[in-house]
Design goal:
This protein has 5 helices and 42 strands. The chain is globular. The termini are far apart. It has 4 domains: 24-48 and 84-147, Immunoglobulin-like, CATH 2.60.40; 150-365, Immunoglobulin-like, CATH 2.60.40; 367-465, Immunoglobulins (Immunoglobulin-like); 469-565, Immunoglobulin-like, CATH 2.60.40.1120.
C-alpha cells in the first residue's frame, strides 16, 4: 500500500511540473542581392530587445546626467533583465544555423561589413508586431537574407586657392521624411587625411549631398582668438556643399547605386559670416560653474562642433568662429553632480543669430511642470492602464523627452518641461482606440509642434477615439499576390498628413495588409513594392504616384476591403 501511495504521489508531482518547452531552430542563407553570391562571416542575431546591453545602457544614462524619466528607467530595467540573445555566423557557403532557441518573439538581424544591415520581415502568420514569433519545437528552414552592397564616394576638400584642407569633416547626407518632416541627415561621415582626401564607404543606395566643414580642433584647447580691433564682422570657412555652395538648395545631388564606388568629387570650401558666443555656465543651484566644458554641435552637421573649457570663478566662456544656426549646447560639470561618479551633463537648444551674442546662460534648463487630461470621445469606456503621454523635443537640438503616466481618471503630469518646441505622442494606446485629437489651449495640435517658449501655462487635452474602422487591402501584381509590400493610408487632405494621421502596414505572403482602429475619413491608399520610410510625406513623391493611388472613404466602425495594384520598384 505504501508503495502504491508513493507511486501516486510521484505521478501527481510529475503532472504538476510544467513540461520543459522544446527549443526552436532557425536556419538559412545570406547572399549578395546584386551578384547572388554567398556571403560568409555575416553576423546574425536573434534578440528579444534592441536596447543596448547593461554596460552601454548605463553609460548612456550617465552621459545624460541621469536625466531619464523614472518610467523609462523602470522599462529599461525590465528589458535588461528579460533580454535574450542568440547569435550565429554564416559559413563559406553563406549558410547559418541557430539552434536551441527559446520560444518567443525576436528581432532577427544580420550585419556584414560592406553591406546594408538588414532586419528579417516575417510573414504575418509568423509575426508578432513585426517580430519573428517562434513556437516551441518550431523549425524554420531556407530563410534567405539578400544583403544590399554599400556604395562609396571619394574625393578631396580644397580652399579658394585649390590647396588641400587637412582638417575638415566630410558628410554624405540625404533627405528623409521618416519623422513626417523633410530633414537632411548625415548617413556617413569621415575626416580628411593630410592631403585633404576623403572616402565615405558605408552608403546605402540613394541620393546624397556631400558637404564639408572645417574642424575647430585647435581652438578647443586654447582660449578664443581675440576679436577684430575695429569691431567689424568676422568671416570663416563654413559648411560647404558640393561643389562650392553654402546653400544646400544649390548643391548637386549624387545618386549612389548598390555597390557603386564613385571617385573624384572636389568640394571647394567657402567663407561666410561667423559670430562669437559669450556667456556664463550655471549649475543646478544657479551658481556659476568654475570648472566645466561647453560644446555646441548641430545634429545635421557632424563637423560643426565648437568647444570651450571653463576654469573661471564666474563661469564665463567664449566660443569663436560659430556659424549662425541651431545647436545642441552641452554643458559638462567636470567634478560632481553626476550619477555613479560621472560628470553632470545638461543639454539644451541654442539658436545662434547672425550677430555676436554676449549674455547666454547655459548649464541650467528652465523647466516646468505641465498637467493634462486624456478623454474618450463618445460613450466608449477605455481603461487607461499603461497609457503614457510624452513630449518629444522638436528641431536639431537635443531635449530630453518629458513623460507622464495616465492615471485611472485620465490625468497626467509632465515634469521637467523645457521652454522649447515639443511634439505630443501617446504611448500604449489601448486596442480599439486611436489618437483623435491633441489640443493646447483649445487649438488643435495633432501632428504639430507646441511651442512652450513663452511658458507652459495652459490646458493640454488629449482625446482618444473609439469609432475606428478595420481596413484590409490585398496587393497584387497581375494576378499574383505581393508579399512584403508597403501599404499606406494617406489622408486625402495634404494639410492633415503627419505621423499620427497616416497609417502603414506590410503585406503577408498572401498579399494582405490588415489595418485596425483607422480614424474615419478620406484617404489615398498606395501599395509600394519598395519605398523609403516616410517618402509618402514628400509632396513631390506623392504627386508622381497619384495615378497609382486609390481613393477610399472610411466611415465610423467600418469594415472595408480594397484591392490594390502594387507600384513596382524602380
Amino acid at each position: 500500500m505504501r508503495i502504491v501511495y508513493a507511486l501516486l504521489l510521484a505521478t501527481v508531482a510529475l503532472a504538476q511540473t510544467p513540461a520543459e518547452k522544446k527549443p526552436a531552430l532557425v536556419e538559412g542563407k545570406v547572399t549578395n542581392s546584386v551578384t547572388g553570391e554567398a556571403i560568409r562571416k555575416a553576423d546574425l542575431t536573434l534578440t528579444t530587445s534592441l536596447m543596448p546591453d547593461g554596460g552601454a545602457m548605463s553609460f548612456g544614462i550617465d552621459a545624460l546626467g541621469g536625466q531619464v524619466p523614472d518610467e523609462a528607467l523602470a522599462e529599461l530595467a525590465k528589458l535588461k533583465e528579460a533580454k535574450k540573445t542568440f547569435t550565429a555566423t554564416s559559413d563559406a557557403g553563406g549558410k547559418f544555423r541557430l539552434e536551441n532557441v527559446d520560444p518567443g518573439d525576436y528581432y532577427f538581424q544580420v550585419k556584414r561589413a560592406g553591406f546594408v544591415e538588414q532586419t528579417y520581415k516575417p510573414a504575418a502568420a509568423n509575426s508578432s508586431e513585426g517580430m519573428l514569433h517562434l513556437n516551441a519545437g518550431q523549425e524554420l528552414h531556407n530563410i534567405e537574407f539578400r544583403l544590399v552592397p554599400q556604395g562609396a564616394l571619394s574625393g578631396k576638400v580644397v580652399d579658394e586657392d585649390g590647396d588641400p584642407v587637412g582638417d575638415a569633416m566630410v558628410s554624405a547626407s540625404r533627405y528623409s521624411f521618416a519623422s513626417g518632416h523633410r530633414t537632411l541627415a548625415p548617413v556617413d561621415t569621415g575626416q580628411v587625411n593630410d592631403r585633404g582626401e576623403f572616402r565615405l564607404g558605408k552608403l546605402p543606395p540613394g541620393r546624397y549631398y556631400l558637404s564639408a566643414e572645417v574642424l575647430a580642433i585647435a581652438a578647443m584647447a586654447n582660449p578664443a582668438p581675440p576679436a577684430p580691433k575695429d569691431g567689424g564682422p568676422e568671416t570663416g570657412y563654413v559648411a560647404t556643399y558640393f561643389p562650392r555652395t553654402i546653400d544646400v538648395s544649390d548643391a548637386e545631388p549624387i545618386e549612389v547605386k548598390p555597390g557603386g564606388d564613385l571617385p573624384g568629387f572636389v568640394i571647394h570650401m567657402q567663407k561666410s559670416r561667423v559670430v562669437r558666443v559669450k556667456g556664463t555656465l550655471l549649475g543646478a543651484d544657479g551658481k556659476p560653474l568654475k570648472q566645466a566644458q561647453v560644446m555646441l554641435m548641430s545634429g545635421a552637421r557632424p563637423g560643426s562642433m565648437r568647444m570651450a573649457s571653463v576654469n573661471d570663478p564666474e563661469g564665463k566662456f567664449e566660443i569663436a568662429n560659430v556659424p549662425p544656426g541651431t545647436y545642441m549646447a552641452m554643458t559638462m560639470q567636470l567634478f560632481g553632480g553626476g550619477t555613479s561618479g560621472a560628470p553632470a551633463v545638461t543639454m539644451q537648444t541654442l539658436t545662434v543669430p547672425s550677430e555676436n551674442i554676449t549674455d547666454v546662460k547655459l548649464g541650467t534648463v528652465p523647466e516646468a511642470t505641465l498637467s493634462g487630461k486624456v478623454t474618450v470621445a463618445g460613450d466608449g469606456k477605455v481603461a487607461f492602464k499603461g497609457l503614457s503621454v510624452m513630449l518629444e523635443g522638436e528641431g536639431e537640438g537635443f531635449i530630453m523627452p518629458a513623460t507622464g503616466r495616465v492615471d485611472e481618471s485620465g490625468s497626467f503630469t509632465l515634469k521637467k518641461v523645457a521652454t522649447t518646441k515639443y511634439q505630443v505622442s501617446v504611448m500604449n494606446v489601448p486596442a480599439g482606440t486611436y489618437l483623435k485629437s491633441v489640443q493646447w489651449n483649445g487649438r488643435e495640435k495633432l501632428g504639430e509642434a507646441i511651442d512652450f517658449s513663452n511658458g507652459v501655462s495652459g490646458d493640454l487635452l488629449v482625446t482618444l477615439g473609439t469609432d475606428g474602422a478595420a481596413f484590409d487591402a490585398k496587393v497584387t501584381n497581375g494576378d499574383k499576390p505581393v508579399a512584403d509590400a508597403t501599404v499606406v493610408l494617406l489622408p486625402e487632405d495634404a494639410a492633415h498628413r503627419n505621423s499620427h494621421t497616416t497609417h502603414k502596414e506590410s503585406t503577408d505572403d498572401a498579399g494582405h495588409a490588415a489595418f485596425k482602429d483607422v480614424p474615419p475619413g478620406n484617404y489615398l491608399a498606395f501599395a509600394w513594392e519598395k519605398v523609403e520610410e516616410g517618402d509618402w510625406f514628400d509632396p513631390v513623391f506623392v504627386k508622381a504616384a497619384a495615378n497609382d493611388g486609390v481613393r477610399v472613404t472610411i466611415g465610423s466602425k467600418d469594415n472595408q476591403h480594397q484591392d490594390l495594384k502594387v507600384i513596382p520598384a524602380k
